[in-house]
Specification:
heterodimer, A: about 350 residues, Rossmann fold, Alpha-Beta Plaits, 2 domains, 4-stranded antiparallel β-sheet, elongated, B: about 220 residues, binds adenosine-5'-triphosphate, binds magnesium ion
Chain lengths: ~350, ~220
């Protein structure tokens, strides 16, 4: 039975500024399940950071409730809130390691004041640095580390108090693609080993695709759609969702060509351009071949792309279909009956 | 020694007074320095944590503190000494000598230093503070383990500047009855026309300033990462 680790109910956040009120978050409802990796994607200014900061109350919501691991964050006393935050780790785009402390001291920092003998704290920090693969850099200062190494230290530090939740605000946005992948793999490993719930913010669909179980797409302070990463990729429901999905393939380039009336997309009178989306159950090209032979039409693949999301394939084809109108209609119907989503462009 | 007395003919006669003046100056610099340092750190931290968006935001206290500091800071030191006479007498029981100088020196230094501390501490990246809040640190811990700790080099730099400034205020106070090297330079070097003693005073102050510079630079070098 899936247990909710984080539950946001009707959360809104309004910032009062000199120039009037800014509605950063509007009526957000999300339940994030224990041990899942939950992604939040949106453009700049969508309210992602504000939302994630509402989870550990770095930002107090204007209204609504924030329940983490069974406790309503908004009702805690100051002292209780500090203790609670120790159980919610957080990492940032710019790492925020303490420059005057060594790697080991940085990881030990959250343990200050914990009821634990010094040597155990050292041991704990060393184990964590081992986990993130940095046991050879314990006595280095942050200024001597690469971006990827800094984020690893930050992850170790965030895990020091054995939190149930790890919040990641654009944790890979300052890193190159290769380092991004290695950090995402580390997060996956941490999630699998420790069963920690991860909430991850990004504006890159590739990150969501790589690591998340479920994703929420945000725009204008609201969640526009929410679902498993596979579903959102296969059948995005919102305009922003579609846009983000399109951005990960070259599909948007095809649309651009069409919009610009490129010679490549000029069609003869008996031709039409269709986009076919295949999902896990039917991602095979034979369907298209079947349709062509059965209904006497010709197909010419203009663009094709297959991706594996959460281990399942999703295919997108843009095809020029040639033949008598009636035959084309029949063929498209046949494809639709086989759960291929068909869109005439 | 022979050489020194040849070039500074008046030194032998006045060596005792000079030594006494030096001790007085050191007493004033140390006494008011230590007090001003503590007050400055305290109020500097207050300014940073109580301002809008600070970890202990308190706009009213912040505004009061800020305005008070600005007002005191804009009063010239000589005038400050005079208007503080009743307060000095109340606290110290006298308005002259080392004891009488401490109160105006502190009040002339601490506001300036508070502002410097504020600037130094403000250099700490807001992100570090945010990360510390997210870590579950209390405001006091953040002040101690993040704000102060991370700005040690900057604090050393402003302490250097303030101390050198203080040395010059102490010398100035000598002109109005505080004793010390300023008083010595005026009485012997100027009024008795003993130029050599004037040069010696300057040399001693130069050495003091150099020591402050040197110590500060060592701290800065050792703590900058
Ligand atoms: N402290 C604040 N005061 C006033 N407005 C704010 C504040 N923080 C955020 N906002 C506003 O709230 C909105 C959402 O900001 P937020 O930082 O959550 O966006 P984001 O999705 O994280 O964007 P980015 O990808 O650029 O980080 C923006 O319009 C922003 O200007
Ligand atoms: Mg953000």
């Amino acid at each position: 039975m899936a247990v909710n680790m984080i539950s946001l109910k009707n959360v809104s956040k309004i910032f009062a500024t000199k120039y009037g009120n800014v509605r950063a978050i509007h009526n957000v409802n999300v339940d994030i399940v224990e041990s899942e990796i939950f992604g939040i994607i949106g453009h700049s200014g969508a309210g992602k950071s504000t939302l994630i900061r509402c989870i550990n109350l770095l930002e107090a919501p204007t209204s609504g409730s924030v329940v983490v691991d069974g406790e309503d964050m908004t009702t805690l006393s100051k002292k209780a809130l500090c203790d609670k935050r120790k159980k919610i780790g957080m990492i940032f785009q710019h790492f925020y390691l303490m420059p005057s402390r060594t790697v080991l001291q940085n990881v030990m920092l959250p343990l200050k004041g914990a009821n634990m003998p010094k040597h155990e704290k050292v041991k704990k920090a060393e184990d964590l640095l081992n986990l993130v693969g940095l046991s050879h850099r314990v006595s280095a200062y942050p200024s001597a580390l690469s971006g990827g190494e800094k984020q690893r230290v930050a992850i170790a530090r965030a895990l020091a108090n054995d939190p149930n939740v790890l919040l990641c605000d654009e944790a890979t946005s300052a890193l190159d693609p290769q380092t991004t992948t290695s950090i995402l793999n580390l997060l996956k490993e941490v999630n699998a080993k420790l069963g920690i719930t991860i909430v991850l913010i990004t504006h890159e669909m590739a990150v969501i695709k790589e690591i998340c179980d479920r994703v929420a797409v945000m725009e204008g302070g609201e969640i526009k759609e929410l679902g498993t990463v596979f579903d959102v990729f296969a059948t995005p429901q919102s305009d922003v969702g579609r846009e983000f999905v399109a951005s990960t393939t070259s599909l948007h380039k095809v649309y651009e060509l069409i919009e610009k009336n490129s010679p490549l997309t000029q069609l003869a009178s008996d031709e039409i351009l269709v986009k076919l989306a295949f999902t896990a159950n039917n991602a095979q090209e034979t369907l298209l071949h079947d349709a062509a032979t059965r209904f006497g039409i010709k197909t010419n693949i203009f663009f094709g792309n297959v991706e594996f999301i959460q281990g399942k394939p999703i295919g997108n084809l843009v095809v020029i279909v040639k033949g008598p109108q009636e035959n084309i209609d029949n063929a498209l119907n046949y494809l639709q009956e086989n759960e291929v989503s068909v869109k005439v462009l | 020694m022979e050489f020194v007395y040849n070039h500074f003919p008046n030194l032998e006669r006045s060596a005792d007074q000079l030594l006494q003046s030096l001790v007085q100056t050191l007493q004033m610099v140390f006494g008011s320095g230590v007090i001003s340092f503590c007050l400055g750190i305290f109020f500097g931290v207050c300014l940073v944590v109580m301002r809008r968006g600070g970890i202990l935001q308190n706009i009213i206290l912040y505004t009061v503190l800020e305005k008070t500091i600005n007002v005191i800071r804009s009063v010239p030191f000589l005038i400050l000494i005079i208007i503080l006479i009743p307060l000095t007498r109340l606290i110290m029981g006298t308005t002259i000598g080392v004891q009488g100088a401490i109160v105006p020196l502190v009040i002339g230094t601490a506001p300036f230093f508070s502002r410097q501390v504020e600037t130094a501490i403000s250099e700490v990246d807001d992100g570090l503070v945010e990360a510390s809040v997210a870590m579950g640190m209390s405001p006091l811990m953040i002040i101690w383990r993040v704000y102060l700790r991370e700005s040690i080099p900057a604090l050393a730099r402003v302490t250097q500047i303030t101390t050198i400034n203080l040395i010059s205020l102490v010398t100035l106070a000598g002109a109005v009855g505080a004793g010390g090297l300023g008083d010595f330079a005026i009485r012997f070097g100027h009024m008795h026309g003993m130029r050599d003693l004037m040069w010696i005073t300057i040399a001693i102050i130069l050495v003091m300033v150099s020591i402050v510079q040197g110590l500060g630079n060592i701290v800065i070098k050792k703590t900058t990462r």
